[in-house]
Design goal:
Oligomer: single chain
Pathway: Cofactor biosynthesis; (R)-pantothenate biosynthesis; (R)-pantothenate from (R)-pantoate and beta-alanine: step 1/1
Largest sheet: 6 strands, parallel
Pfam families: Pantoate_ligase
Function: Catalyzes the condensation of pantoate with beta-alanine in an ATP-dependent reaction via a pantoyl-adenylate intermediate.
InterPro entries: Cyt_trans-like (IPR004821), Pantoate_ligase (IPR003721), Pantoate_ligase_C (IPR042176), Rossmann-like_a/b/a_fold (IPR014729)
Strand content: 15-25%
Helix content: 25-40%
Family: Belongs to the pantothenate synthetase family.
Distance between the termini: 42 Å
Radius of gyration: 19 Å
Strand order of the largest sheet: 1-4-3-2-5-6
Length: 282
């Protein structure tokens, strides 16, 4: 398996194997890989001649230094998991200096307002950090297609907006959420949960499924109040936000419109470990 730590070496190798018919499928990650990540790699391999995965814990998208410090870093284990998909996958695992070249700061981006909803509201500067690293990785890898999981649906919309506004020549592909047997959305942060917390966290998915059902007959405000009451009864959970939003604009649903597609978004702390989830309600 080819593992590169320097962009110059990655660029040289990709150039050596590229021709007019080469397509590169790219999966950007922060490591601590799980089945959801591997499914993105499988799709990238199916749809392209070459697949590249980046493993880089990006400091500029963390507004909480403690969260950055505790984020799992498991490169050796990640590489072994990648091998189970294909040993032909190219791994780019850069250092902070290789990416930022001594200036570890975010570029500022205007995403037409979608950056101010939900994650952006509760994690100031987060999407500037996301845009900075994604744009940088696209410049380095120069992929044909890039694959992102729908669990981070707001991030997916942000990346699509980034590519459109900056005219970056890459096709963005959203892929379905992978869930654990109990419904919990797979996340690298799940590794920080105890076995009991992991079991209890299934409530998050169960709650948004019930919220989706209720949205069929109730308003978004009524459903939101029910979710807030539900979590208020649970000592082990802290609800950060729950929102039913327009998929296109990410603006909260005030009054239902049959011509719009809506989606539920939720962020919950389980013993200071932040988990997010989302489902379409259409």
């Amino acid at each position: 398996m080819r593992i590169f730590n320097k962009q110059s070496e990655l660029n040289a190798f990709l150039k050596s194997i590229s021709n007019d018919k080469t397509s590169i499928g790219f999966v950007p990650t922060m490591g601590a890989l799980h089945r959801g990540h591997l499914s993105l790699l499988e799709t990238a391999l199916e749809q392209n001649n070459t697949a590249v995965i980046s493993i880089f814990v990006n400091p500029t998208q963390f507004n909480n230094p403690e969260d950055l410090a505790k984020y799992p870093r498991t490169l050796d284990a990640d590489v072994e998991k990648i091998k189970t998909v294909s040993p032909e996958i190219i791994v780019y695992a850069p250092t902070v200096d290789d990416i930022y070249e001594g200036k570890t700061v975010s570029q500022h981006f205007d995403y037409d307002g979608i950056e101010n909803q939900m994650e952006g509201k509760f994690r100031p500067g987060h999407f500037d950090g996301v845009g900075t690293i994604v744009k940088r990785l696209f410049e380095i890898v120069k992929p044909t297609n890039a694959y992102f999981g729908e669990k981070d649906f707001q991030q997916l919309q942000i990346v699509k907006k980034l590519v459109s506004k900056y005219k970056i020549p890459v096709n963005i592909v959203g892929c379905p959420i992978y869930r654990e047997a109990n419904g919990l959305a797979m996340s690298s942060r799940n590794e920080r949960l105890s076995a009991e917390e992991r079991k209890e966290a299934a409530m998050i998915y169960q709650t948004i499924l019930e919220a989706k059902k209720q949205f069929g007959t109730k308003s978004a405000a009524e459903v939101t109040k029910w979710v807030e009451r539900t979590f208020a009864k649970q000592n082990q959970f802290e609800l950060e936000y729950f929102q039913i939003a327009d998929e296109a604009t990410l603006l909260p649903c005030i009054r239902k419109n049959k011509n719009k597609n809506y989606r539920i978004f939720i962020a919950v702390f389980v013993n200071k470990i932040r988990l997010i989830d989302t489902i379409s309600v259409n």
